[in-house]
Write a structure and sequence with these properties.
The chain contains three helices and 23 strands. The protein is mainly β and 392 residues long. The strands form six sheets. A six-stranded antiparallel beta barrel has the order 8-9-10-13-12-11. Strands 2-3-4-7-6-5 form a six-stranded antiparallel beta sheet. Helix content is 4%, strand content 31%. The chain is globular, with a radius of gyration of 21 Å.
Length: 392
């Protein structure tokens, strides 16, 4: 029998991760209980950054060694050894200012969604007078703001809106809030890629360093988004309250949910409270969410990218363009970038992240298909969190 520990109101210390084995199914991704995972992913009471580093963590796998410069197995690509997350987003076109919006409560995470507003998880127990910190640097953020007022979502969902005592952008002008999503999520969103961010536990056991992880939406429930890292990556202890972000229909990066709980492995299932269901609650305090006019390009270039069947790139007047493609999205040699295509896709449907076909890694780079035969070099094709399909 699988015990849902959150129902017992237990907040777990990082050093206790190993003790969770008695409550997990043999395959952590199988979710034998039929419901969402049930272990809150805050750092727990008495949390001390750096204490018991690495205690009880699931194995982080074998790091790829020194990069191979040439062989007979096919094309090469850079491989990251990061297991749980990456220092910068790998999928969504987030600007540097939006990256700064992911912040820490030193035990839970949160996201700046407005000039004085932070979105997080109710079970983190934030209170007036507590500090929320962001920074340009990824580790131990030091630009801190005081919580003035706490607004819990009244129906009892694991969603809390926090009003800060001062303007974030007045003191940190480079920071760009990531607005809540204005789309309604439905079954068509299953399979779309997301980017989660937070200051949770690393594979080394360390805490309080901002990282991101890209995974597709595995399923949607009545009020939850579920992702599954399939043993490769995911959110971990201390990421509770942090965002899961998607590309909205207006072409901008939006927050679609906040980390609520997980299965305890940090690399399989995690669930996020959906934001789209609670827009009325958010707007009753923040005001209207939708921004006026088209969003700026930020760090998105004219080259752009293909994201979930949409071409996203920087258009005229430095404004972001996102076009939902009736046909395929791929490399347009005339535009020298990723666009919606009227004719055949030279990439044959392959994205820059690619896929594993059997034990071969295949991807497309600027309209040129690439392939690497992992078997020929005694390697295995995996979906690496940083670069996509590759041989390790």
């Amino acid at each position: 029998m699988r015990v849902r520990l959150a129902s017992l109101a237990l907040l777990l210390l990082p050093a206790c991760v190993g003790d969770l084995a008695i409550d997990l199914p043999h395959d952590p991704g199988s979710n034998n209980g039929g419901g969402p995972p049930a272990i809150y992913l805050d750092a727990g009471p008495g949390f001390v950054p750096g204490a018991d580093a690495g205690a009880g963590l699931p194995p982080s796998g074998t790091d790829a060694g020194a990069p191979i410069t040439s062989d007979e197995c096919g094309d090469l690509r850079t491989v990251s050894t990061v297991h749980f997350g990456t220092a910068t987003p790998t999928y969504l076109p987030m600007s540097q200012g939006q990256i700064y919006a992911v912040g820490s409560f030193n035990g839970c995470s949160g996201l700046v969604v407005g000039d004085r507003w932070v979105l997080s998880a109710t079970h983190c127990g934030q209170r007036s007078g507590q500090r929320f910190c962001v920074d340009r640097q990824a580790q131990d953020p030091g630009i801190c703001f005081t919580i003035a007022t706490v607004y819990h979502e009244p129906s009892g969902s694991d969603l809390t809106l926090l009003e800060l005592s001062e303007s974030v952008t007045a003191r940190f002008p480079e920071l760009v809030p990531v607005l809540p999503i204005t789309d309604d999520l439905d079954a068509s969103w299953v399979g779309r890629m997301t980017e989660a961010g937070g200051f949770g536990q690393q594979e080394s056991g360390g805490f309080n360093q901002r990282e991101f992880t890209a995974n597709p939406i595995d399923s949607l429930s009545s009020d939850r988004i579920v992702i599954n890292g399939h043993g490769e990556s995911g959110v971990c202890y201390g990421d509770s309250g942090g965002p899961i972000m998607v590309l909205g229909s207006d072409g901008s990066v939006r927050t679609a949910g906040v980390v609520s709980d997980g299965d305890g492995t940090c690399i399989y299932e995690a669930t996020f409270t959906r934001v789209d269901l609670y827009r009325d609650f958010l707007e009753s305090h923040m005001g209207p969410i939708a921004p006026p006019g088209p969003p700026p390009c930020g760090d998105v270039t004219v080259t752009g990218s293909c994201v979930d069947g949409s071409a996203t790139y920087c258009g005229a007047d430095d404004t972001l363009v996102s076009e939902r493609c009736a046909g395929s999205c791929g490399w347009d040699f005339d535009a020298n970038g990723y666009r919606c295509l009227a004719g055949p896709d030279p990439c044959g449907g392959l994205s820059p992240r690619g896929q594993c076909d059997g034990n071969a890694a295949r991807w497309c780079q600027r309209g040129v298909q690439k392939r690497r035969d992992c078997t020929a070099c005694g390697q295995t094709c995996v979906m690496n969190p940083s670069v996509g399909a590759t041989c390790e």
